[in-house]
Amino acid sequence: NAGVTQTPKFQVLKTGQSMTLQCAQDMNHEYMSWYRQDPGMGLRLIHYSVGAGITDQGEVPNGYNVSRSTTEDFPLRLLSAAPSQTSVYFCASSYFAGFADGYTFGSGTRLTVV
Amino acid sequence: ELKVEQNPLFLSMQEGKNYTIYCNYSTTSDRLYWYRQDPGKSLESLFVLLSNGAVKQEGRLMASLDTKARLSTLHITAAVHDLSATYFCAAAAQETSGSRLTFGEGTQLTVNP
To answer: Cys-Cys crosslink for B90: which of A55, B33, B76, B86, Cβ 3.0 to 4.6 Å?
Structure first.
């Protein structure tokens, strides 16, 4: 059982480049989310989805796009990378209402924008 | 807007001692999560607390939830070095049914021999 799989694990981008961070889960979870983690700031919600075809903005959505065409996949797109987007990105998934098990997090993508 | 505050942010303790990490949240929430993160690693789910008065224990860690006081605690009993990590609490505003989590800043715990 793979759980939540994120790719790539590491990425270096130049300012202005675009890229997609991939996230896939094999647990048939309805909820999926993207967070960024910066030193001393905990995790902040970027975008989230409560089911296929449904997405919404979180706390820090600017500069990022998402889509949820299938239950399994929830890619995060950086439209034009900026140094302020240097961070560690985590994808997470959960059953509806997060009963019992809470959210399962992927291993993270460490992104550096130069 | 839901805000979550943890204290202390840094905690250095000796092996064998007890201590409590506090997590306050600002608006009504019916679910509270505790996670552990080791350096350079992902988050590991520790506890999910879903009702007022909920108490869960796993090994040397015990978590509780008081929804009236908007407070959750993570109590560490007889700390050991292996518990050194950063601990996060997260809450979901009641109207979101758990779809959006707001995290505290994390408590960096160091257990010294």
So the answer is: B33
At B73, the amino acid letter reads T
> In chain B, whose CA is at the least distance from the CA of A38?
B105
Which pLDDT tens digit goes with each residue over B7-58? 999 999 999 999 999 999 998 877 899 999 999 999 999 999 988 888 999 9
Residues of chain A contacting residue B105, judged by C-beta atoms under 8 Å apart? 40-42
Q: Contact A81/A17 with Cβ under 8 angstroms?
A: yes
Tell which residue, A3, A101, A13, has the closest CA to residue A63: A13
Handedness of CA A80, A83, A88, A90 (dihedral sign): negative
Q: Which residues of B touch A104 (CB under 8 A)?
A: 45
Q: How far apart are CA B51 and CA A25, in angstroms?
A: 28
* Mean pLDDT for back-to-back runs of 10 residues, chain A (114 residues): 91 97 94 92 92 94 97 97 97 75 90 97
Tokens (6 digits) for A95: 């059953």
- Smallest CA-to-CA distance from A107 within A42, A23, A43 is with A23
Q: Is the dihedral of CA A77, A8, A3, B86 positive or negative?
A: negative
